[in-house]
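Exercise: predict the structure of this protein bound to protoporphyrin IX containing FE.
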Amino acid sequence: MRRSLRRQREAVNGEVSMAGRISGDETQSAGFDPRNGDPDELYEELARLRGHGRVVHVPRLQAWCVTGYEDIAAILRNDEDFSARDHKPRSSADVPADVRETLRTWSGESVSLGEMDPPEHTRVRTVVNAGFTSRALKAAEPGIRAAAAQLLAPLAGLSEFDLITAFAQPYALTVILRFLGIPDEHHADCLRWSDHKVQLMVGRDHTEERLREYATGLRAFGELARELTAQRLSAPRDDLISAMLHESPHGHRLTPQEVASAIPTLVITGHTTLAQALAMTVRHQLRAPGGWEALTSGAVPIPELVEEGLRLDCPVVGMYRTAVREVTVAGHVLPAGSRILLLYGAGNHDPARYPDPGRNLPDRWPTAPHLAFGRGTHYCVGAGLARTELRIALEELAARLPGLSAAPETTPAYRATFPLRTLTALRVRP
Ligand code: HEM
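Solution:
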C-alpha cells in the first residue's frame, strides 16, 4: 500500500517537470512576480496577491500560490494528498550535462530530508531528531553564548559595522558547524559552498563558468561530509554527526551515506535562515520607536520578540508541495501533479489571524503560533536550536551594545532569492 503510494508520487513528480499544462479553475494573478519586485515591498505584494484569492495560479512561478494561514496549515497536515518530493524552488539555469551530473551526485544518492515523504521521512527524521534533544540543546548553550560574545567583543569599539557580515552570519555558521562537529577551520569553505547551493537553487543568469565553479565547490563539500562521517563512524564524539551515525531510536538507523548526505543540508539550512531571522528581528526592533530600548530594558520578553520577528519577516517565504491526486484547495479543484507554493510569509500576515499584520507587536505571543518553521511532518528540525540561538544573540546584543541604532538611512540591500529572503547588509552603530 505504502509502496504503491510512493510509486504514484514518483509518477506525479515526473509529470510536474512538464509544468505549464496546468488547467482548470485558474485565477490570473495580475502579473505577480515576487522574483522581480522590490524586496522591501514583499508584504505589500503578498497582500495584493491575497486580494486575488486564497489560491492563485501564478504562471511565472508555474505554481498555485496559497495565501491563507488556515489553508496552508491544512495542506501541511495532509501528507497523503500533498508530496514534498519537489519542495524546493527549481533552478532556472540552463545547466550543461557535466555540471548536471556533478549536481546529481555531489552529496551522494540520498535525497534530502525536506524532500522525503513518509515512510522514508519518518525513519530519517526520527534519527535526526535524536541529535536535537532538549539535553543536547541545553548542553550547547554555553558554547553558543561564547560564540556570540567572542564575535561581539571587537564590535563595540567601532563607529559603524554591518550586522550581517560581522555578526549574524559568522555566528549562525559557527554554531551549526560546532553543533554538527565540523572543525572551525572549514568555516570559510562552508560559507562559500552554502552560497553556491543557494545560487544554484534560486539565482538566475549564471554563466557556464560560474555553474562549473559552484559544482566544483559542492563536490568538495560532499567530500568533506564523507570524510567527517568516516571519522565519526570509528571515533564518535558528542556531536550531531556522531548522533546521526550511532543513535537508533525506535530501531531506526541511518547508513553512513545518508548521514554524509544530510550534513551539507544541515549546514546550509542551519545558518542561512538563522542569520536572516536574526538580522530581520534586529532591523525591526531598531526601526520601531523605542524598540531597542524595550529589548535592553527587558520591557518585552526576548522569546516574544523572537516569535514576532519570525512572523513579521520569515526567512523562508514559501515552499512547494505537489498534489499527489486531484485535490480541492480553498474551493479550487487542482489536478494531480499541480505544483503548489505554500506562502508562509503570506500566512504569517493573514489579517484573519493577525490583526494589523504589518505591525511589530511582540505581545501577540504566546497565543498565535506562526508558520516561519513550517508545520506538520516537515516542521523545522532545527526550530529549537534556532530559538535558542536567536534568544542568546539578542541577550548578548542587548548586554554588550545597549545603545545600538540603525546607521542613517541606507537603502536595504537584498539579493533576488525568492522564496528565500536574503537581506545582504544591515549597517548599525554601537
Ligand atoms: C530561524 C531559522 C530557521 C527558519 C526560519 C527555518 C525554516 C524552516 C522551514 C519553513 C522548514 C519547512 C520547509 C517545508 O515546509 O518544506 C524547515 C525545515 C527544515 N529545517 Fe529549518 N529553519 C531554521 C533553522 C534551522 C536550523 C538551525 C536547522 C539545522 C540545525 C534547520 C534545518 C532544517 C531541516 C533539516 C528541515 C527539513 C525538515 C524535514 O523535512 O523534516 N533549520 N526550516
